[in-house]
Amino acid sequence: MTEMVYGSVPMRAGEPVLPRWWRTIDKWSMSAILLLFAVGLLLGFAASPPLATRNGLDPFYYVQRQAFFGGMAIVAMLFTSMLSPVMIRRLSVLGFLAVFAALVALPVLGTDFGKGAVRWFSLGFVSVQPSEFLKPVFVVSMAWMMAAGQEVGGPPGKRLSFLITGAIVGLLAYQPDFGQAALVLFGWAVMYFVAGAPFVLLTVLALLTTGGGMFAYNNSEHFARRIDGFLSPDVDPRTQLGYAANAIQEGGFFGVGVGEGQVKWSLPDAHTDFIIAVAAEEYGLILVLLIIALYALVVVRSLFRLMRERDPFIRLAGTGLACIFGVQAMINMGVAVRLLPAKGMTLPFVSYGGSSLIAGGILVGMLLAMTRTRPQGEIGDILLRRGRG
Description:
It is globular, with a radius of gyration of 22 Å. It has a two-stranded antiparallel sheet. The two termini are about 20 Å apart. Helix content is about 70%, strand content about 0%. The chain has helices at about 1-5, 15-25, 25-45, 50-55, 60-80, 85-110, 130-150, 155-175, 180-195, 200-220, 220-230, 240-250, 275-305, 310-335, 355-370, 380-389, and strands spanning about 120, 125-130. It is built from 16 helices and two strands. Strand 1 and strand 2 form a beta hairpin.
């Protein structure tokens, strides 16, 4: 029906899947993701050997695992980017139901690995963090609800998405994982805004979020400890934030040299949450700016391509995925330089972590699928044709 009303751009009849995928994919964004993964491997060689040595493992044990999980992430990204938006929507709804059930079961069957937050399922040879896989399927599922709510006679999609988001945020806060809860809430708010939410409602939501943060501060020792550390004017040099801040200062513009950094011997999470500190110390501001530029390239190009998309579901889902991807990177780097309180959040495609890498591959694959050039034409073509008519 849409093509009958607005017209369409002819497809290349009989074109195989791979050539069509290559012709329509955003090659700049895909190249930026592959470069981020390469940078992650490079930093893994610097950051992970000290941890492996402390644990009595082969020096490059974590690098090998990062390469393995990263390979799986790239395969997941490429496969997902070839799917149609309809197929992504269907798989995301099923995946969301599965992840929601996992989050409900986490307090009973999960483990905290001594970190004070029950976020993982331990399978012996590997651990799984459900909240990482939640983000892409949550965004797509909520975008579908909001888009369906815009149709004549459609369901109350915005209200349903609000109730589901509240339940998800509650489950994440109970772990506690306030960082992921805030990220999920942010992704939903962005899509809600793009879908036409009134500003007054967003203001009320911001006030409720502030109130929730105050409640968490007064009732969660884990949350209060991180906020107090962030607000303290003095940084204890023996804490992770202290080590990271010192490493960034020592790195300067060009870094202290490959393999010469010292922060990796002091930080237990140098290969995950504070990988940007290793990059800043050994390679300097130059590599940090390159990493920031790669994330910005993916987000900005995706949003510009989505601005020309006329399908509400694709526009909402793509915007949510792009913003979550970019904001997670911003949070990770912001924590390292004390612009934000510690969140325990990885740097997408750069930090070590099986769940983070594979889930990131799925998320970026969905984003690449949503930003592919559509054969039915773009909204600019429709407006131009209307003007000529």
